[in-house]
Structure formats: C-alpha cells, structure tokens
Design brief:
Blueprint (H helix, E strand, L loop, with lengths): L5 E4 L7 H10 L1 H4 L4 E5 L1 H11 L5 E3 L13 E5 L13 H19 L6 E3 L4 H6 L7 H8 L10 E6 L2 E5 L9 H4 L2 H19 L5 E5 L14 H15 L3 E6 L1 H4 L2 H4 L4 E4 L2 H12 L4 E5 L5 E4 L16 H16 L1
Parallel strand pairs: 1-2, 1-5, 2-4, 3-4, 5-12, 7-10, 8-9, 8-10
Antiparallel strand pairs: 6-7, 6-11, 11-12
C-alpha cells in the first residue's frame, strides 16, 4: 500500500527552513526518516539544494501521487509562486508562499491525503507586511481548522523527550496576562491537554502540574489573589472530572528537574514562564506541538535564523525531532 506522507510546509524561503528540510532528506537512509511531501516551490528548492551542495532529485508531486520509494526522490507540491533563492532577504512573494503552503498542507491533511503537518519557521514581521493578521502559526492553524464557524482552541506545547510544557497565554503582553487567567479558561485548556496526551501520546492518565501566576504561587494572597480565586478552584474542578491535575506550584520550584520529572506536562501561566526552562535544558531538540486541533501539527522550536540560511551549517535536530514526533503522534491517534 502507498505510504501516506507527512506534509511539511517549507517556511520562510530566506531562512533556514528549506535548508533543514533538504539536510534531513539527505540523511533519510541513515536516520530512517518517515516519508514526507514538501509544500513550497520546486525550482527554489533545487536552487537551495545546489547552494548547499546536496545532490537531491526534487520532483513536482501531489500527496496522492508521491513516489512509493521515498528514498529516490523528494516530492514537492509546487505552490506556483515564483521566488528566488536569496538567503536572509525576505520579501512579499516569499511571505505569500508561506501562507499558501500552510493552508494547502492543512487542507490536504484534513482530507486524509497527509497524516500530519510539520511547519518550518516563518517570519512574522514579513507576514504582517502583507496583511497577515494572526500572531503566529498556532492561531492561523486554528482558523484553518474551523468547522461551521467554530474555531478550535489551539494549545501550544513544547515537548522534549519526557519534558513537556504548556504556556496558558502565549503571544500577549505580560501586563495583560493576569486578566486572562480565568477559572473557565484553565479548565478548558487543561481538559484538552489531558485528552490529547491520552490520544496522541498514549499516556493513560496524564499527570498535569499547574504553576502559580504570582511569586510563590501567591503565598496565600500576599502577592496577588489570582492563584486563590482562579487557579485553585479550576484545579479542584479538574480533579472532580477525573483529570490528574495538581498545584499551583511556585514556578521556580516546579521547573527544578526532580520535580519536573514527576509530571507528564507542566502548565505555566504565561509564555516565558514555560519557555525559559525548556529552552534552557532542550534548546536544540524541543518540538512545538499544537494541541486542540483535529489534525496533528508539530514544528521546530526555533526561528528562521537568517544568519545561517544557505550556509549548510544550521542544526537540524529540532526539525528532525518535529518530523519524528509528528509520525509517532499520527500513528497513535
């Protein structure tokens, strides 16, 4: 039977996304890389491969007609946007290609033509110049997955081996975070996290820790009331619903590794509270996973790295981990 491939969006053409995809494909035999199809531009990828000194047979394809033998040629769904291989020089054509390739990859995944979506890094500043309204990948993916006007609740999880973190609030100013940490929001998000850890990660009873919002988890109201009024009641409701949730724990001790290893995921209240610890211990191999969607989506946990684009020395560890995790998650669902 034909192997249903993973879908990989090429990402920002001027960044390292194309480099990583090509480097990983070149390693496919040594590392047993699962089959994938790239959504991007054939001629651009051929030019970038030549720049990197990689001898890769790149062919135009669709997921339905992707070659059975993934090891002989790299299939690319050509989005038809003519772009030039110009490392570190983003432009409007490249930004439009990024948006279009993500949308097509998600659509094909929803149609069952691909098993999961892996997205290479994008350049948010360039996307905003052409009218992109979303804060990032996560929110755009949720809109693409909307059904009958109902937009799913997307949740960003960073995963590295047994270490997983979720920031409850993501791309918002820190000053707005306290007003967003509400009982119902916590219950909804943690319920989704519990469900997806069971479904996609095969964890029968996920152990979920929640940090406090304030220093020392508020220290009984001395440093703020959000922990008492919002977080603690939400944890109680989750427990009554059968979710193994606990906390709130002071963030400075929750992320001490002996404590961290007691849990399957740590849910933090804001972006940096979650991302600083995991990037400290797993910067090169953490994977960005979007929970709460009807499809599986992963991404490397880094940006476009314009200074490395086209040079052949970008670290592909996180991108390779994203591909392998997408494969595992899509098999287990």
């Amino acid at each position: 039977m034909r192997t249903v491939p993973l879908a990989i969006s090429m990402g920002e053409p001027a960044g390292i996304g194309p480099d990583l995809i090509l480097q990983i494909y070149a390693q496919r035999q040594a590392r047993d890389i699962p089959a994938f199809i790239v959504y991007g531009n054939v001629e651009f990828l051929r030019a970038r491969a030549e720049r990197l000194g990689l001898m890769i047979n790149i062919i135009a394809s669709s997921p339905e007609n992707a070659p059975r033998d993934f090891k002989t040629s790299l299939p690319v769904f050509d989005m038809g946007t003519g772009i030039i291989d110009s490392p570190a020089q983003p432009d409007a054509k490249g930004a439009q290609l990024v948006i279009d390739s993500i949308a097509k990859a998600v659509g094909d995944c929803q149609a069952g033509l691909c098993r999961a979506v892996v997205t290479a890094p994008l350049n948010k500043a360039e996307l905003k110049k052409i009218g992109f309204k979303h804060p990032g990948h996560t929110e755009y993916l949720a809109d693409l997955c909307a059904e009958n006007g109902n937009v799913p609740t997307p949740i960003m999880m960073l995963a590295a081996e047994s270490l997983r973190v979720v920031p409850l609030t993501i791309h918002v100013p820190l000053a707005k975070v306290p007003s967003m940490i509400k009982h119902d929001m916590i219950v909804e998000n943690v319920t989704i996290i519990d469900r997806d850890l069971r479904t996609h990660f095969g964890i029968a009873s996920p152990r979920i820790a929640l940090t406090g919002l304030n220093p020392h988890a508020g220290e009984e109201g001395a440093f703020g009331l959000e922990d008492i009024e919002e977080i603690i009641p939400a944890i109680a409701e989750l427990k009554s619903a059968g979710v193994d949730a606990s906390g709130p724990y002071p963030a400075d001790t929750a992320f001490h590794l002996p404590n961290w290893n007691r849990f399957d995921v740590v849910v933090a209240m804001y972006h940096d509270q979650a991302l600083i610890p995991i990037k400290t211990v797993a910067f090169d191999h953490a994977v960005n996973v979007t929970l709460g969607l009807p499809i599986v989506r992963t991404s490397p946990d880094h940006g476009t790295a314009f200074d490395l684009a086209g040079k052949g020395n970008a670290n592909a560890t996180s991108m390779r981990a994203a591909i392998n995790l997408a494969q595992k998650m899509s098999v287990s669902q």
